[in-house]
Design a protein that fits this description.
- With 166 residues, this protein is α+β, with helices and mostly antiparallel strands.
- It has one domain: NAD(P)-binding Rossmann-like Domain (Rossmann fold, 3-Layer(aba) Sandwich), CATH 3.40.50.720.
- Helices cover 34% and strands 17% of the residues.
- The chain has a three-stranded antiparallel beta sheet with strand order 3-8-7. Strands 1-5 form a two-stranded parallel ribbon.
- The longest helix is centred in the N-terminal third of the chain and has 14 residues.
- The protein is elongated and about 70 Å long.
- It starts with a helix and ends with a helix.
């Protein structure tokens, strides 16, 4: 959408500048699939530890890449839209394995007999862990966002068209 807005000279519309999204290249996605294929057991879930960026930073990066003069226009959050993405919930993080660039969540193979939990729980008290989401993960700078975006074939193709029309 940003590319279309820039190409047509329209304002770049964003709903909320604080909104964050995970940033993952096609190459990262392929690497995740290959890693999961090589390392997974049936029922496992793998999540790439992707960095995130604010939508405002993505829009600013796109303006810089394309040399656009389009203003950024805030249009307000849409119904059902979330300020950040959650890839793993707190409960999933409790059983996730840290695999360096990935999280592995093993299939839940527990016994469904919960009578033990009427007298004891897991651990000695509250466990401090939170969701894995785009609001709390590593945040890309505008320069890092530009570097990532310029590796995407869609951005490269659009940039060639813009340069050819100048």
């Amino acid at each position: 959408l940003f590319i279309e807005q820039i190409a047509s000279g329209k304002p770049i519309t964003i709903t909320d500048p604080r909104m964050t999204r995970f940033m993952m290249s096609i190459e990262d996605a392929v690497d995740l699939v290959v890693y999961a294929f090589k390392n997974a057991q049936p029922g496992d879930l793998f999540v790439h530890k992707a960095p995130a960026a604010t939508i405002e930073d993505v829009a600013t990066a796109m303006k810089t890449i394309f040399g656009a003069l389009s203003p950024i226009q805030l249009i307000g959050i849409r119904h059902g839209e979330k300020l950040w993405e959650t890839l793993l919930t707190r409960e999933e993080m409790l059983c996730a394995e840290d695999r360096g660039g990935y999280f592995r969540v093993l299939a839940d193979a527990r016994d469904l007999n919960y009578t033990i939990f009427t007298t004891e729980g897991i651990g000695d008290g509250p466990i401090e862990v939170s969701d894995y989401n785009s609001h709390t993960t590593r945040r890309l700078s505008i320069e890092e966002t530009i570097s990532l975006l310029t590796t995407l074939p869609e951005v490269q193709d659009a940039l060639k068209k813009v340069v050819a029309h100048r």
